[in-house]
Write a structure and sequence with these properties.
By secondary structure, the protein is mainly α. It is built from one helix and no strands.
Length: 21
Amino acid sequence: FLEDDFLEIEKNCKKSSYNTV
């Protein structure tokens, strides 16, 4: 898959972590 997709997914993961905290 594309690197951009990976970066976007990583951002979403971080957002989820922040929201959980």
